[in-house]
């Protein structure tokens, strides 16, 4: 008889604890649209025109576009940009790109390769962020970026490049080779 009472008492405690421990909040409404893509494209080629001239071409294996927040994500991407006068500006590839077209923010991830025709410079990294409003390309403080061109081969941390001033900096550690006008190689540490 004591065993039956203990089992019944234990059963009551388990039922009550289950009833009172339920953490679902039925009053909070979740907008499923912000988590579900509105459009999904495969093997996409996207062209953007500004003032009737081609400015960007984006090719992606897969692209998801989300409703309401101007967000899109593209996988296995290749991109090309042109200047306002129609000259080739930049080409690049990455494994994933996050696009916020309202804020003009583009975050690139995985095996990034960028070539800028005007500066004749190559940029390689794993994570970069481009702000289209101020034309800044930046990395994280601990992210390694490799830039190289004819007279320069540098790898460093905390990279920033300006499309306005056509300059770049490493705020973190940097190492590589830079050749001066007299062709002597200098090692930077």
Report the count of strand segments. Answer: 13
Q: CA-to-CA gap between the ends?
A: 82 Å
Biggest sheet record: 13 strands, antiparallel
Structural class: mainly beta
* Alpha plus pi helix count: 1
User: What is the gyration radius calculated from CA atoms?
Assistant: 26 Å
> What is the string of helix and strand elements?
HEEEEEEEEEEEEE
Task: Kindly state the percentage of residues in helix.
Answer: 10-25%
Any descriptors?
mainly beta; 13-stranded antiparallel sheet; 1 helix; 13 strands; 58% strand
Question: Mind explaining what this structure looks like?
Answer:
- This protein is mainly beta and 189 residues long.
- The chain is 10% helix and 58% strand.
- It has one helix and 13 strands, in the order H-E-E-E-E-E-E-E-E-E-E-E-E-E.
- The protein has one helix at 2-20, and strands at residues 37-50, 53-66, 71-82, 88-100, 105-116, 121-131, 136-138, 144-149, 152-157, 159-162, 167-170, 174-179, 185-188.
- Strands 1, 2, 3, 4, 5, 6, 7, 8, 9, 10, 11, 12 and 13 form a 13-stranded antiparallel sheet that branches.
- It is globular, with a radius of gyration of 26 Å.
- 13% of the residues are buried.
């Amino acid at each position: 008889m004591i065993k039956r009472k203990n089992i019944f008492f234990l059963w009551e405690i388990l039922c009550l604890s289950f009833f009172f421990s339920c953490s679902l909040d039925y009053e909070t409404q979740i907008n499923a649209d912000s988590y579900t893509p509105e459009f999904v494209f495969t093997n996409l080629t996207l062209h953007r025109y500004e003032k009737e001239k081609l400015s960007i071409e984006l090719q992606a294996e897969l692209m998801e576009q989300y409703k309401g927040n101007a967000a899109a994500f593209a996988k296995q991407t290749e991109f090309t940009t042109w200047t306002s006068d129609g000259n080739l500006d930049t080409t690049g590839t990455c494994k994933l790109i996050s696009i916020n077209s309202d804020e003009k923010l583009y975050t690139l991830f995985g095996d990034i390769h960028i070539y800028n025709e005007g500066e004749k410079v190559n940029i390689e990294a794993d994570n970069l962020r481009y702000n289209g409003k101020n034309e800044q390309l930046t990395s994280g403080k601990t992210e390694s970026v490799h830039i190289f061109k004819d007279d320069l081969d540098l790898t460093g941390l905390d990279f920033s490049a300006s499309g306005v001033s056509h300059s770049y900096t490493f705020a973190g550690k940097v190492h590589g080779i830079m050749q001066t006008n007299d062709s002597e190689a200098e090692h930077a540490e």
